[in-house]
Amino acid sequence: MSEIEGEDKLKHKPFENTGIEEGDTIIKINNRNINSTNELIQTVNLSHGENIQIKFIHGDETKECSIKPVRTNKNEYKLGLWVRDSAAGVGTVTFYEAETKTFGALGHGIADIDTNELINIASGEFVTTRILNITKGEKGEPGRIQGTIEDGKNIGLISKNSKFGIYGKVNNLLSLNIDSSREMEVATRDEIQLGKAKILCCLDNNYPQEYEIEIQKIFKENNHDNKSMQVKVTDEKLLEKTGGIIQGMSGSPIIQNEKFIGAITHVLVNNPKEGYAVFGDIMLKQSKNITNK
């Protein structure tokens, strides 16, 4: 939300006292469905400054309010609302389940950058990424994998964004570069042990490589968030490349005794060598009942 300078040179807040808040989702204006930012802009401009009725979703409720758009000196009408209709980012695909053709990725949800709340997605695309650069993590400053989806190949559709990751269906298996010989079972929580494990991580534009980590703590009864295990990177090659866990590595699968036990989800900002991981059984459960939209 922001003030709008009208053609009268005064500052206006058309949204004030209407009940609409940051993080809400606009679904209709004057009974017209709104599916994109462009549709919203066009509809508001067609109002010519007359009151418009906005239907929006706030939490689990659907609400309505009336807003009078402000005319600017550029002969545009504005509400004072910054609106996004899409988000994009780089992350790691954790698994593909051949029987259901579903995938799981990230191990955490995609959140709104301003409200930190999970984005309620209508649909999404799952595309290949070309890695451009890696910034090493340091104490107090998380590193990151920088990539581009330009010329990326569409692999599938995202239909679920949960606090335990994003999920959907794969429809272009060739572009996913699956190594079918790496098929493995999902470990039960009782099978997970403290000590050595390894992660699969892609830090260049070739195939994923294995790196050693250590499982430091296991929170066996935790089902409410994605901090199921505390882990530490011990592999010298990985530490040299990344400094530890960095943004973009979320979703990197963890393997112990040749079974899938979980995926990297968080880094400890003050110690990038350490972070958290989610149990594999939680991610697998989240991938059930996924349908193409």
Notable features of this structure?
single chain; 293 residues; mainly beta; Pdz3 Domain; Thrombin, subunit H; six-stranded antiparallel β-barrel; five-stranded antiparallel beta sheet; 21 strands; 39% strand
Notes on the protein architecture:
The chain is mainly beta and about 290 residues long. The protein folds into two domains: about 5-80, Roll (Pdz3 Domain), CATH 2.30.42; about 95-285, Beta Barrel (Thrombin, subunit H), CATH 2.40.10. It is built from three helices and 21 strands. The protein has helices at about 35-45, 235-240, 280-285, and strands at about 5, 10, 25-30, 30-35, 50-60, 60-65, 70, 75-80, 95, 100-105, 125, 130-135, 145-150, 155-160, 165-170, 195-200, 210-220, 230-235, 255, 260-270, 270-280. The strands form six sheets. Strands 16-17-18-21-20-19 form a six-stranded antiparallel β-barrel. Strands 9-10-15-14-11 form a five-stranded antiparallel β-sheet, with helices on one face. A hairpin with a 2-residue loop joins strand 14 and strand 15. The longest helix has 9 residues, at about 35-45. It starts with a strand and ends in a 7-residue tail after the last helix. About 30% of the residues are buried.
Largest sheet: 6 strands, antiparallel, barrel
Count of runs of 4 or more consecutive helical residues = 3
Biggest sheet: strand arrangement: 16-17-18-21-20-19
Q: On the 0-100 scale, what is the average pLDDT?
A: 90
In quaternary terms, these chains amount to: single chain
Helix percent band: under 10%
CATH architecture of the largest domain: Beta Barrel
CATH H-level name of the largest domain... which superfamily? Trypsin-like serine proteases
Text of the CATH class of the largest domain = Mainly Beta
Integer count of domains: 2
Structural class: mainly beta
Instruction: Tell me, briefly, the overall form.
Output: elongated
Number of E strands: 21
Predict the CATH topology of the largest domain: Thrombin, subunit H
What fraction of the residues are assigned to beta strands by DSSP?
Answer: 35-45%
Query: What are the segments in which pLDDT stays under 50 over at least 5 consecutive residues?
Result: none
Calculate the terminal CA-CA distance, rounded to whole Å.
31 Å
- Cα-atom radius of gyration: 22 Å
SSE run: EEEEHEEEEEEEEEEEEEEHEEEH
